[in-house]
Design goal:
Length: about 350
Amino acid sequence: MSIASKVGQVTFSQKSGVYMAAILCDKGDLYQEYDGDSSAPTNIAPDFTTLKPTLSFLLTSSRVAEGIVVPSSIKWYFNDVLINFTSNVSTNTFGGETGHFRFVPYAAGTTNYYGLQVVKNLVKASAGASCTIKGVATVTVGNVSDEIQWVYPIPITKGVGNQKVVTIMAGDDKYFAIREKGGSVILSAVARLGASELTAGLSYKWYRMINNAWNLISGQTGKNLTVTDSMVDTTGIFKVEVYQNSTLIGLDTQTVIDLSDPYDIITNPTPEDETISKAGDTVVYRPILVKRGETTKAKDMTFYFVFMDSAGVILNPSTANTPSASGTCTYEMCQQAGGNVAWTITTKD
């Protein structure tokens, strides 16, 4: 079993050599479909006015022993427009409407992360196009402040067809993060057809990534999977396949973070913002293993680097099982993935 692992994606995350940011949604990966004109959409699915998903901004750092970092403040943006709030309700006008979002303040023991709840549909707000929600957190240490941001994409497409969609939701209020030894989180698989959740004739297969390969978890055939801290080395990736009447209808993957692990990995990406935008661009990782709460190397170590698309397909099969001091994500990997590339960095031992 490895000492530690790290999971992320090649997109935009400032200062990620020291801080690791992520926006996680309690309702799984968000998307919307609609019929009609974007100015007067119908049959919007899923309906955010009833689903009311909450996006939580998780910020971790190897510098702090408890792993999680509470920002001093956070700003939220919709399609790069700063969202303004009065009494925690957004006041911006998007698509002729207001009140799309609710600001969720940090409250230790109650809401352990800053969040943004989506309370209205976003089709009109984004003129029928895919949209983004960005969180920019300010972290202050002494007299020095850093801004760390993460961008969460929400695909929006015209046409509510017969495509079945599978997503992994949080089955509890922990947002896929284990915060104490002996702790656990619950993953819950949901299958949808348009606005309706599918329930009839479903069966499930759950997988865990071990040694850079998907391993079937024996005996786990239900809708929910309980992930314990013993199943995660700092971070871990899990996959579900959902079948209806023995036919595969979809799959999804989800990262789980264990903040109670004594070790962490500083990934040291170049460039620091982990952005690939044109042919020839790369992101190179030169990680070190550290004890949580420290930033100096704990021991010499080589790592396994695995780059994947959103379905968990490995994009570097020829090098995924070869330990190295560095790993490189390429423009070609992003093209093959059709966008962002997820990565896993795991210690050899």
